[in-house]
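Researcher: For the annotation table, I need structure tokens for BQ5605_C017g08500 protein. Please keep the output clean. Sequence:
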Amino acid sequence: MAPPHDGTTSSSRRRLHTSRNLRFSAVHTKTLMTLLAISSTLMVQAQNAVYPQPTDISGTGPKPPAVKSPANGTWATPSAPVTHGNGVHVPPASETGLGRQAHVRSATDFCLFMPPDPVNENLVDAEADAVAYCFNAVNGTRPMPDGFVQTAHFRKTANYVQVSGTYDWRKMNLNPYDCGGEYDNHGPSGTGNPVGAAIDGGQDFFQFLGSCDTVGVGQFVIRSCFGPRSYPYCRNTFDLMGSLWVAPGDYREPGFTSCSADSDLPVGVYNSSYTFAQGQSYTPPAVTAPSSSMCSTTASPSASGVTYAWAQSGYQQAISGGAASPTATESASATTSSSAVASSTITSAPTASAAASTTTQPAVATTTSSTSGVWHLVAAESALGMVFLSIVMAFLA
């Protein structure tokens, strides 16, 4: 027996089926476009994730970020010896070099001591074994990574030369909350921090590099001292005070400049008579930067293809709750590390990790939204996987 007739012809059923398919296709397409838009947004968010602020920075301080995907550069390691100084032949630079002979010559020709393995060491961990990363690197030092130095200001005085400026922590996988410490040619054992470190043309040197003097901004200074007053101008007993206090200068001004400058008083000396010692109950304010003259502006260093495997391009340059980008034009005020931290969103001074010394003071740092950076990154990565799975399922449907 034939089934009852529903009153529609095969032709009308085909038209109805086609209409339903068109409506489904329109919804399908709209849903797919929405998913693609969400996916694109989440990809941008994941690529520009904010690095989370640590909740415990006791001991030597926060550890380096985990490297998610190694980067690659185009720099070719030279093989032939190079002529250096007075016709002396020395080994070339190497991305795996362990050289510790630094130099400070101009705003675009200097070295900074940093961890040889920033995947596993922070700035304080590397106190004894840091190596020199240099512009115009030779003699087993490492080439400076492209884009690491954001601004640099060279000052030449009668007693020292100095370069101060800002850096992009991502290029060297330095934790953006790492306060760092002081490197110098003395150290607790007299052999230097790092051991064996020296500087061309200088008898003494010190370096500060970290993100706590102006919270959220990576700042550095390296000073090379010479002449009969070398040590007073490169005194190494103020490792807790920070760069803005020990070595006033230009830090956050944009660009690359070189100037002649007056010598200020030796580190810790006030009014030519009073000398402050670290640890005294009263900390005097930092002195103002010495006046400068005969300044010239130079172009930023040319890219040389140096990108280390640990470079972290996926994170924003600025950090959650921190200061503006290191290229901000406003000048950092001449304050101590502790006062700079107190004015930030970090409520418990993280300068405990800034001490490059044998004693540490535990501290806990929190921001107004201490987990926002974590959830930003985790949520973006998790959602990306779900969105792409949905897209694949939609295509297969």
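Researcher: And a one-line annotation?
Model: The helical segments are 10-47, 230-233, 243-246, 337-342, 372-396.
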